[in-house]
Amino acid sequence: MSVKVKICGLTRCEDVETACEAGADFCGVVVEVPKSPRSVTREQAKILLDKMTVSSVVVTRSKSLDELIELANFLSPFALQLHGREPPDLVAGLRNKIACQIWKAIPLPPTVEPTALTALCRSLLEQSKNFVKAGCNALVMDTATTQGFGGTGVTGAWELAAELVKRLEVPCFLAGGLTPENVSEAVAIVKPFGVDVSSGVELLPGVKDPEKIRNFCRRAKHAL
Question: Residues near 1 by Cβ (< 8 Å), separated by ≥ 6?
Fold first, then answer.
C-alpha cells in the first residue's frame, strides 16, 4: 500500500484543486494561528474545505476545549489536528464532543546524538501513547526548532521517527522539511503511514507550486 499524502497550509482554492487532482489523500488548512503565514480565518477555511474532494484536516493550536468544539462544529472536517502544546487531558475532553478524528502533532528534534536516541525515543513514545490513550486517531511527527513547531522547512530526526513508527499502533505521518527531492528517501527510512508537506511545495508562504505538488505526490506514492 502506498504512503498517504497530506498537502497542508493551503490558502487558495486553485491550490486545493491542484492537490486533489495530483492524488493527495488529505488537504490541510491552518486556521486561526496568528503567527503562521499560512493561517486563514474559519470563514476562509470553509470556502477551501468546500472545494476539497479528499479528506480535510483543520490544523490549529492554543485553543480551549470550547473553542475547539466550536471550530470543529463550524467546519466539520475529517480531522482536527492539534499542533501546539495541548495536553492529553484536552484530547480526552474533546473526544466525545466532536464527530471528526483528532490528530496530534508530536515534536521531533532536527537531529539526535546516537547516545541520546534511546532515552529520547522512550520519552516521545510515552508521550505519544498518552495521546493515543486519550483518543487520538493519528499522530503527526513534525520538526520543532527554536524558530517554531511546524512550517519551518527543517527536517527532523528520521531515525527517531522510524523507531516511533515501528512501536506505535496508530497511523503516523512524517512532516518537517519534506520536499519532492527528499520524500522518497524519507519514506524509505521512516516507513510512515503518511507524509505531510507545506513549505516544501511552495513558491512563497501560503502559495503552492502546482508542479511541486504533483512531483511530491508522485514520488511519495512510488517510494519503496
Answer: none
SS3 content of the chain, % helix, strand, coil (to 5): 40, 25, 35
- Nearest-angstrom CA–CA distance, 167 and 164: 5
pLDDT in tens, 14-29: 999 999 999 999 999 9
Are 223 and 187 a contacting pair, CB within 8 Å? yes
Give kind and range of the element (H or E) at residue 14: helix 13-22
pLDDT 10s digits, 67-90: 999 999 999 999 999 999 999 999
Domain containing residue 13: 4-221
In terms of Cα–Cα distance, which of 84, 124, 119 is closest to 108? 124
How far apart are alpha carbons 161 and 167 in whole angstroms?
A: 10
User: What domain count does the chain have?
Assistant: 1
Q: What is the pTM of this model?
A: 0.94
What's 78's domain CATH number? 3.20.20.70
